[in-house]
Every structure is written in C-alpha cells, then in structure tokens.
Design goal:
Layout lengths: L4 H7 L13 E6 L12 E4 L30 E4 L1 E5 L10 E5 L9 E4 L5 E3 L5 E19 L9 E21 L5 E10 L5 E10 L12 H8 L5 E4 L29 E2 L15 E2 L5 H10 L3 E6 L22 H15 L5 H8 L10 E4 L7 H16 L4 E5 L7 H13 L3 E8 L1 H6 L13 E9 L9 H16 L4 E6 L3 E3 L10 E3 L4 E3 L1 H10 L5 E2 L2 E3 L2 E2 L9 E8 L4 E8 L5 E8 L10 E7 L18 E5 L5 E6 L3 E8 L2
Parallel strand pairs: 1-29, 2-12, 2-20, 12-15, 15-16, 16-17, 17-18, 18-19, 19-20, 21-22
Antiparallel strand pairs: 1-25, 3-6, 4-5, 5-11, 6-10, 7-10, 8-9, 8-10, 8-11, 13-14, 22-23, 24-27, 25-26, 27-28, 28-33, 29-32, 30-31, 30-33
C-alpha cells in the first residue's frame, strides 16, 4: 500500500489515538429521532462544455464544423479538386456552404474530408445516419467512411452513393453500416457526376443514440449519468455562461429552434490553457437548452439552468466597460423570464410555442434558476438584485440561486454570503476544488452554518490531489468523507454536484473529471462511484449518528472516521455510511437505539469501496479496476460488530422487518 507523507501528516491528529485489539469505535444510531428531510435534489450532475463534453462528447454528432461556420471556415476539413466556399446559403445564421464542381485534368477528383473530433468512432455492424442539405440537378456524391491508418488494400470502410436531384435546397439522408470497428475514422465525400453540387450542414450520427432519438445523445455517456440516480442537473456551465466577453456568453435563445440555424459560438475553453490548446473548439449549440431540459427529464433530475447576470468573466475582464450597465440590464432579465416561459409556459405563449414545436408540448416544470456563475465584488449583488425582483414578481414559485464566488472561503466568500441573505435568494452556490488536507478538515463544514435563510448548493466540488490531478482512488475516498458532512446537514445543504462532468481523453483541458471517454469507450471514475453510492443510497431523512456523543467528522480521537446515517422510508431501511481515512483497520460497534419493541433488524448488506493502491484509478483499458463490492452482513439483535479496513468507504444497510 502506498504511503503519502502529506496525507499522513494531515491525518496525524485524527489517528493519534490508535485502536488496539481491545478497542472499538462505538457508534450510536438514534433511530427514533428522524431529522431533516434529505432533498430529492441532494446529489446530481453539473454539465459544462469543457473537455469536449458537448460537441465531440455527449452530443453524438461525429462531424466537426458541419456548417463551415468556424472563423476559419474549412477548419476540420481537407479539400481536394474544385471546391468553392460560399456564404449565401439557406440558413441566415449559418450562411456558409461549399460547392463541389468537376476537377481539372490535373486535379482528377473533387471532394471534401472531415476529421471529426480526434477522429470518428465507428463500430462494425452499427448503423450511422448521414445527412446533408444539398442542391443540384441530377448529380451524385459518394460518401465514404475511411480508415487512413489502415495497411489494407483499401482505406474505405464503407461507401454509398447519394443522388441529389433538386435545384432547391433539400435535406437528404442515408445509412452507412461499417464493416470494421475503428476509433479514428474520417468522412470523405466525392463528387461523382459531371455537374456541380452545393453541400451544407454535413452530418453523421450513430442511429443507436440515447432513447433512439434521431441525431441525439451518446448512449453510454447518458447511461452513466442516469445510473447515479441524480436529483439535479445544472447546465450549461460554468464559465461559458460568462463567456470571454459578453458577446461570447452562452445565449440560450441561440440554442433552440432548428439545429441547422443555430449560430456558432466561441467556446472560451479552446484557448484558456495554452498548454492544452484547442483552436478548433467551438459550440454549435446542437445540444442546446431544449436537449438539456429533455436530458434532465430523461435521467429523473430537476433542471437547473444558469444564466448570465450581465457580467463577463471577471478573471479575464477587469474594466467596468466589459459589463452591462445596471440601467441596461432589461434584455438580460427578459432572457431569464422568457426561459421560464420556454420551460413552463403553455403552448399559446411565445416561448412555450417554441418548445412545443420542438416536440415537447408538455412543460418541463422548471423549479430552479441560477443567476451568475463565479462572480464577486459589489458588481454582482447589485445586478442580481434586479433579477431577483423581476423573477419574484413574475414567477414567485421559482427558486433563485445566487453565488458565493469562486472560492470556498476568504474575502469574496465572506462578503457575498451576507449579500445573498439580504437578497433572500433560496440557495447559494459554493465551489471548492481543494487538496486532500481541505477535504480532511471539512467534514464538519456545515455543522455550524445558520439553519435559517438560504440553503447551500455545493455546485462544483472535487478533491485535487497534491501534485496528482487525476481521478485516483484516494481523492474519491476523501470526497466520500466530505459528503458525510453534507448528508448529516441536509437541513442546510440541498444540492451537491461534482465538477467537471465529462472529459475526452484526447481533448481535455481540466482534470480530474467524473467520466472519461474516447471515441468508442467511456470509463466511470472512482469519484463517479462515490457519487453513485450516495445517489443510490440517499434516504429520505437524516438520523443522528454519534461517536462519544459527537458527530463523526474526523475529529481528534475519532480514528480518522467520518460517518452519517439516514432512514429510507419507502424501503424501511437504515443506511449508514462510514469512511475510514486512516491507514489502520478499525473495529466498529454500531448500536441502533430507539427501535420499537416490535421492530427487528434483518440481516443486511455491506457495500465496500476500497483499493490497496491509493494512486490507482479506473481507465478505459481497465474500467473495473476499482468498483464497489456488495456482500451480506449479519447483525446481533440491534448491534452490529464489524470492522472497516484502512482507506475504505463502507455502506451498511439494514431493513426493518
């Protein structure tokens, strides 16, 4: 087992009183004192288009720059022969297209080739839907999926001809079925007739998408989200809500309506980190607000959209001129009110009609809205106030979420929390990307928070190892320890979401991340398993659990243990979560006190999450290296005697007979 001097130093206080063979950590679970209700929204997901999480990731489109609208219009494309770029196409917000004309004697062939997002992942025997808007009379194109790396006689994986037979713009579709699996395929299109043909919005999707929706979402990634039983789904960010400047902020109104006419937006992450530079990273808005609301509905989570408050990213914009003046906020506030109408309005309203025309006449039942992301200083609450007043007046039932800034403590944090109380927001979004020592010291973070006033949304959290920014087991163990304190304080904390959510192994800019993927595979990290274990064992009410009459939060004399307990009313089950952050096996005695005389605890289940190697992680090649193991466990009357191994997260579940 690897030892970490920094961790051992941080643990020294909590494990200074070691256990010997005769001692046991004696915990009391007070079953007759059900406490705070655990909100259905307690555990969920935060989505941002970072690390190629949308285009090239969750959004299953395989073609990059499908409408030739990148600032360098042919970025992602290789052209050969007689190809002309034009800008008077059928879609006013995406005007560019290409014309393929017969090649000269020296050129021989005309066509275009798309590289996809780090290639295109295709599977043998699976169906892929090619579509294109085209114009041309009695013309033909040949569409191929190719393997440029192949040493075989032919590059072609599959090829099919498509007839273009109209002088007007028209959408054409056909299916391609590859005969081999390849993760770096390209799409190649040849002109194979004697005239010219115009092509716009060139697209390729797997037919087998999430719920079989045409041109939808990548199935394995959505399943990974759904399997955690999320209660909340926050979107679309994150810093992209702010944009590099206000012109490049995420504008939800540009992300709805026909996908062919959703305008391109700059993704502020394509150049933010020069050591991980991706100049071809843009937002097509193909997976826009309609699709994100629908995704939240699919996975059983409450949607939580985040909107710009009139401030550009404060990390990149220090001058007041970069922001909207207070007197000019009306259009931003109206965007917020219109979004509520889009989500909840009847089909006879302007924006409810847009939703219905997109295929969802029923409302999305939006309950929450966040205004602003990681803003700070006086400029934020003075703008937030304008939004709060307008939303409260028009939609008093909508719960409004404000921000405590980018840090978990400090000057900005201390200033913003009182301001949020003055504005009477419903929840305050806290963010913490912090090292192991912070997580070890924060098991009781919420124990002394005020019980009245705004609740907490732990909107972005992740343990960043000291010099180890990857998803190794030890980081996830400390996240599990921290979440016992979140759960114990369910009257204060109503939501918690890990961040970031998704990362392409060839296109990441930030790590660690919850789910990693390449063009064909995905892997659920150790942090994903922690989030899933909490989401699938949420319970309905907190119940008191103590060690020497104190909450179990890694305090001195508590042997490096963190713990929480809940009651799940539908299943009549007690669920106890215990995390041992020390390097010693610990004996546990757990007394379930206060049970009715007629009640009896049956034999239960124990779920153990552990790795001998603290630096180990799940990978695409070995995705099941570290997974929870479930076994039966017996109880003697109302007392459980067991032990929990070093560096282990265990869950004990007992149903009342």
């Amino acid at each position: 087992m690897k030892k970490h001097s920094v961790i051992l130093a941080a643990l020294a206080l909590s494990v200074s009183v070691g256990l010997n063979a005769q001692n046991a950590a004696k915990m009391v679970v007070q079953t007759n004192k059900p406490g705070a209700e655990i909100q259905p929204t307690m555990y969920g997901h935060f989505f941002e288009d970072i690390n190629f999480g949308a285009d090239g990731g969750l959004y299953a489109e395989l073609v990059k720059n499908r409408s030739f609208e990148f600032p360098q219009c042919l970025m992602g494309w290789r052209i050969f022969g007689n190809v002309t770029l034009k800008d008077d196409g059928p879609f006013d917000r995406n005007p560019h297209y290409v014309t393929l004309s017969p090649a000269s004697h020296y050129q021989k062939a005309t066509g275009i080739e798309n590289e996809g997002f780090f290639g295109m992942g295709v599977k043998a025997g699976e169906k892929y839907r090619f579509s294109v808007w085209a114009r041309g009379e009695n013309q033909k194109i040949r569409v191929e999926l190719i393997n440029n790396a192949s040493m075989s006689e032919s590059q072609v994986i599959v090829a099919k001809e498509l007839a273009v037979n109209s002088s007007d713009w028209k959408k054409y579709e056909m299916e391609l079925v590859p005969n081999e699996t390849f993760d770096k395929a390209h799409l190649r299109i040849f002109l194979c007739s004697s005239g010219s043909v115009d092509l716009e919005h060139v697209s390729l999707f797997p037919v087998d998408t999430w719920k079989g929706r045409k041109n939808g979402l990548r199935k394995d990634l959505v399943q990974a989200l759904a399997d955690t039983k999320p209660g909340i789904f926050r979107f679309p960010g994150g810093c992209i809500v702010e944009g590099t400047d206000l012109a490049t902020r995420y504008n939800w109104k540009n992300s709805v309506g026909p996908v062919e006419n959703r305008p391109l937006n700059e993704n502020r992450w394509h150049y933010t980190f020069q050591h991980r530079f991706f100049p071809d990273y843009f937002q097509t808005y193909g997976m826009g607000f309609f699709e994100l609301f629908q995704l939240a509905e699919d996975i059983g989570a409450e949607p939580l959209p985040v909107l710009n408050c009139g401030l550009a990213c404060q990390y990149q914009n220090n001058s007041p001129e970069a922001n909207v003046k207070l007197s000019e906020l009306d259009s931003y506030v109206q965007d917020a009110l219109d979004l509520i109408e889009f989500a909840n309005g009847g089909t006879d309203t302007e924006w409810g009609k847009v939703r219905a025309e997109m295929g969802h006449p029923e409302p999305f039942n939006l309950k929450f809205m966040a205004i602003g992301n990681e803003q700070w200083g006086e400029v934020y609450p003075e703008r937030l106030k304008v939004f709060v007043e307008a939303i409260r007046k028009a939609y008093p039932d909508i719960k409004i979420i404000g921000s405590s800034g980018p840090n978990s403590e400090g000057k900005d944090f201390d200033y913003l929390w009182p301001e949020m109380r003055k504005l009477n927001v419903d929840l305050v979004d806290e963010h913490f990307y912090r090292p192991e020592t912070w997580f070890l010291a924060s098991g009781n973070r919420y124990d002394k928070y005020p019980r009245k006033g705004p609740k907490v949304f732990a909107g972005e959290y992740a343990c960043h190892g000291n010099g180890k920014k990857w998803n190794h087991f030890h980081a996830s163990l400390l996240e599990a320890a921290f979440l016992t304190g979140v759960e114990r304080n369910a009257d204060v904390v109503h939501m918690a979401t890990y961040a970031p959510l998704l990362a392409h192994v060839d296109g990441w800019q930030w790590r660690p991340d919850l789910i990693w993927f390449d063009n064909l595979r995905s892997v659920r990290t150790c942090s994903w398993y922690v989030q899933s274990l909490y989401g699938n064992n949420r319970g309905t009410n907190v119940i008191p659990l103590t060690l020497d009459k104190k909450a179990v939060s890694g305090q001195e004399g508590q042997y490096g243990l963190f713990a929480s307990a809940v009651w799940d009313e539908p299943t009549k089950t007690y669920i106890v979560k215990v995390v041992n952050t020390s390097d010693q096996t610990c004996k546990l005695q757990m007394d379930f006190k206060g049970l009715k005389k007629s009640a009896k605890l049956g034999n239960g289940k124990c779920v153990v999450f552990h790795s001998d190697d603290l630096d180990a992680e799940n990978t695409l090649d070995n995705p099941n290296l570290i997974v929870p193991r479930e076994s039966s466990i017996s109880i003697d009357g109302n007392t459980l005697n067991t032990e929990i191994g070093a560096y282990t997260f265990s869950i004990y579940k007992f149903t009342v007979l």
